Amino acid sequence: MRDETHSDEPADTTGGTRAPSRRAVIGWGGAGLALGAAVAGTTAVALRGTDGTESAGSAGAAVPFHGAHQAGIATAVPDRLHFAAFDVTAKDRAGLIQLLKDWTAAAALMTEGRAVGEGAFGGLPEAPPDDTGEAVGLRPSRLTLTIGFGPSLFTAEGDRFGLAGRRPEALVDLPKFPGDNLDPARSGGDLCVQACADDPQVAVHAIRNLARIGFGRIAIRWSQLGFGKTSSTTPDAQTPRNLFGFKDGTRNVAGTDTAALDRHVWVSPEAGPDWMAGGSYLVARRIAMRIETWDRTSLKEQEDVFGRDKGEGAAVGKAREHDEPFLKSMLPTSHVRLAHPDSNGGARMLRRGYSYTDGTDGLGRLDAGLFFLAYQHDVREAFIPVQRALSRADALNEYIQHVGSAVFAVPPGVRDKDDWWGRELFS
Ligand SMILES: C=CC1=C(C)c2cc3[nH]c(cc4nc(cc5[nH]c(cc1n2)c(C)c5CCC(=O)O)C(CCC(=O)O)=C4C)c(C)c3C=C
Ligand SMILES: [Fe+2]
Questions:
Q1: What atom in ligand 1 is closest to the CA of residue 285?
Q2: What is the DSSP letter of 228?
Q3: Which atom of ligand 1 lies nearest, measured to the CA of 251?
Q4: Which tens digit of pLDDT belongs to each residue from 39-71?
Q5: Which residue(s) pair with 372 in the sheet?
Q6: What Å distances lie between residue 358 and 163, 192, 202, 286, CA to CA?
Q7: Pocket of ligand 1, candidates 264, 336, 350: which has the most ligand atoms within 8 Å of its Cβ, to mutate?
Q8: Of the candidates 359, 107, 116, the residue with the CA atom closest to the CA atom of residue 225
Q9: Which of 114, 123, 226, 294 could bond to 118 as cystine, CB 3.0-4.6 Å?
Q10: pLDDT for the residue numbered 232
Q11: Which one of 182, 335, 398 would you pick to mutate in the ligand 1 pocket, going by the greatest count of ligand atoms within 8 A of its CB?
């Protein structure tokens, strides 16, 4: 196990769980993982407060995996991301369901800071260990794992998953926006998993082990590492800055604002379909930022582009970051004016994107940008109209380009240890 104490003491480095040699008895697979999850669930109750939030504030702690909504949406945004989109290669519905059950059990363990299955070492010498081992000794690090289902899962060839009639109306394919230069190899996916953590090794370990568990049933389509969150769900904390040096996330939906979450982020039971109640829709966009061009741009132009000042982050004509913007005092092309709810029929979304750098572009420039992630109750009312307005007129377009895109239906939370990711979809 990685850490059972949740204290500041050094974590256990044995790399296994306490369970005896279960694999010798029941073999590798869902049964073993489910048993592991049951053990972890019992421990979790003992370690957490009744509201489940006891440990969510500090960097090494665990964020509760079970709940009405998936963790990783309204919960605090840790500083590191590993996001992966997968194609499902499982032959049929039963194979997909078993994958989701196996993943859920492993996710419950890893978010508790525990190793998968029987752990990284100490098991059968003849078999590869259940856990890959690189997170042994590391704390839970506020790891959250959030799953989503892409449109292509519902349109699989021959309807092999039996999901043709289950696609939510709101899970639309995103239209092509002016200026898009999307790379198919960085777009789409049947499934996605968003792993957020304070420690990058913990996030990478989680995605790697889910991919490993899914061997033969899924293939990674694309993935994205992120650092330096560019939005937060905790407005009382210092607002992070993006790679253009501006405070980003000033007017985000707060994780504690239940009215705004209910109105703008969670799918209501009335909206349907039933299996999405309490879920959300995620838009992921890889947006390249022309760092070198930006760095040669005057401060005045930079501030005009956003409609906020660079130091304080205050809107044009205002003194403090959180003062209400007066939109008419901003240029009609400014990013904040165009993206503001008052310019978009009240539309809001919960942003929790990350900066990325992926080496160079081969032309002597940094390949860097924003991996934009936004949750909303309906993309037709939020991301699509806002991005339509931005793509037409935003002064920021001179400095950015959208190069990857995906949309996912994010189901509600896993209620308890007997529940699994997406169960309602298959009921
Ligand atoms: C379609 C939605 C959005 C995309 C795409 C987007 C890209 C993008 N944004 C920044 C930097 C900032 N954005 C800011 C505010 C802001 N942006 C969006 C939406 C998209 N941004 C919204 C809804 C808002 C909030 C508007 C409001 O209510 O006032 C800001 C200002 C600070 C803040 O409020 O967060 C910055 C800075 C970049 C660099 C970027 C693409 C690379
Ligand atoms: Fe923005």
A1: 5
A2: E
A3: 34
A4: 333 232 222 222 233 334 566 899 999 999 999
A5: 285
A6: 36, 20, 20, 12
A7: 336
A8: 359
A9: 123
A10: 80
A11: 335
Predicted local confidence at residue 58, as pLDDT: 64
Spell out the alpha helix ranges (H) of 4-84. 22-26, 30-47
284 C-alpha vs ligand 1 centroid, how far in Å? Answer: 14
Give the 3-state secondary structure of residue 145: strand
- pTM, two decimal places: 0.90
Question: ipTM greater than 0.95, yes or no?
Answer: yes
pLDDT in tens, 376-385: 999 999 999 9
Looking at residue 236, its pLDDT comes to 85
The answer to whether the beta carbons of residues 277 and 412 sit under 8 Å apart is yes
Closest C-alpha to ligand 1, atom 13: 248
Q: How far is the CA of 166 from the centre of ligand 1 (A)?
A: 32
The number of the ligand 1 atom at minimal distance from the alpha carbon of 369 is 42
Distance CA 124, CA 279 (A): 40
Instruction: Tell me the pLDDT band of 231, cut-offs 50, 70 and 90.
Output: confident
CA 272 to centroid of ligand 2, rounded, Å = 29
pLDDT at 48: 26
Taking the CA of residue 347 as reference, the ligand 1 atom at the shortest distance is 23
- Count other Cβ atoms within 10 Å, centred on residue 344: 18
Q: pLDDT digit string (tens) for 71-87?
A: 999 999 999 999 999 99
Which residues does ligand 1 sit against, CB inside 6 Å?
242, 244, 246-252, 285, 287, 289, 306, 308, 325, 335-336, 339-341, 370, 372, 383, 386-387, 390, 400
Residue 14 has pLDDT above 60, yes or no: no
In angstroms, the CA 249 to CA 252 distance is: 5
CA distances from 341 to 64, 80, 161, 179, 327 (A): 32, 28, 38, 23, 11
